[in-house]
Amino acid sequence: MITRTLKEIQEMVNGTGLAPCYEALVIKGVTINSREVQTGNLFIPIVGERVDGHLFAPEAMEKDAVATLWQKDRSDAPLNKPVILVENTELALQQLATAYRDQLALKIVGITGSNGKTSTKDIMASILATTFKVHKTQGNFNSEFGMPLTILQANEKTEVAVLEMGMRGIGQIALLSHIARPDAAIITNIGEAHIEELGSRENISRAKMEIVAGLQDDGIFVYHGDEPLLTDKVANLNASYRFVTFGDGPKNNYYPTSMKITSEGMVFSIPQAAFEFSLPVLGKHNVMNTLAAIAVAHNFGVTNESIKKGLASLEMTKMRMEIVKAASGLTIINDAYNSSPTSVRATLDLLTSLTDYEQKIVVLGDMLELGEHEICYHEEIGAYIDHTEIDYVFTYGSLAKHIASTTKVARVQAFEDKEALAEAIKTVATAKDIALIKGSRGMKLEETIEVLQS
Asked: In this structure, which long-range contacts are made by residues 274-282, counting pairs with CB atoms below 8 Å and at least 24 apart in sequence?
């Protein structure tokens, strides 16, 4: 984590007002949450829509924060305490992250996309860790606050930082890209996530393309070559960084020449390697995520042998294609972290391709933030479910009931209660079956899984 004197911090954020007697004090780490203060932290109070972080500065100082930043337009700065005045504390946090990034001898990999950001981050970090000292985004810490804090958490000896970049609207990924100034940028795909805010996939693709805004001139841009919304925009770019594509077929730089499902995950080959790679997680979409990661790894000089080792030791973030067992022995694909039409179709394709189970059960919750066409999207998913392969469909939520109403699967039930949903699954599932459980974060379908495991 960042360790600097307060004099250095003041210079890094273009601040003023620090009393000379405090200049030699050293901060260790940064927080914007007074409840998470660790001894030695710098506290940065953020002015939010509902809460002003400045109100919590006294609490932070009582918990042994060394110092606090203070926005000049806020009154009542702590007396007789180390305080650095700044024009805007949010901007100061971002300036501090950029300055720290510039002081470290590290490369940055930035990752965005409608789906697969976190999985690709995990895969990328595991591969690169075979060759470099790697730091990565924890959980979903990918916002205008989370990503700068992730940079500031990096060790001085970090050689590569793998950063997830999320968004809620136009301009946000450009901001993150300018802060991080990545050496490599990845767009995993363009789906429907955030369509409520942005209105169309075209606008989503425009927002995701902002990741190249801060890309280094000698960097590498890796994107899904089968997505016209990306390829059309890339054709109009006049840039000095390299372009590399991944996708299904040989028109892409990276593509699978073979791919098969095993009991332990996926096995695939690529033209750039003389042997197969084993990926300990299910799904063709995760093979695509891995291709993007391999493209960056090759650019950084990682060997195929090291890539193979990195994939073998991969640990994915929880609730993303996580295989767990119910108390009954039922196999569960826990993909309950988030959901969108694109990701649901991908996981349904995976489920239908599995052959070692007697019954296949689909459990789907509401897909949220899909805008005015949300019902249509759910109806399309219902129609997409292969009734020749899927034995049961259970839904949870007021929107997901439209999946239940349009599916051709004969045995289907819609629920508004998670415990009742879990009991219904228990009634039909055996140790020889498999269930896919997926829904948007707000649906918290992992709670149903917990019931099944108890």
From this structure: 274/304, 275/304, 275/308, 277/307, 277/308, 277/311, 278/308, 278/311, 278/312, 279/123, 279/311, 279/314, 280/311, 280/312, 280/314, 281/119, 281/314, 281/316, 281/321, 282/321, 282/323, 282/333, 282/350
**Structure-block tokens of residue 131:** 């060759």
Residue 257's pLDDT is what?
Answer: 98
- Within this chain, do residues 328 and 259 fall inside the same structural domain, yes or no? no
Domain span at residue 256? Answer: 104-312
75: which 2 tokens? 């009154």
CATH of residue 191: 3.40.1190.10
* Same domain flag for 365 and 334: yes
Q: What is the pLDDT of residue 318?
A: 85
Q: Is residue 99 part of a domain?
A: no
What pairing do the DSSP bridges indicate for beta strands 322-325 and 331-335?
A: antiparallel
Total-model pTM: 0.88
pLDDT 10s digits, 304-323: 999 999 999 998 888 888 89
User: What's the domain count of the chain?
Assistant: 3
Q: Residue 94: inside a domain, yes or no?
A: no
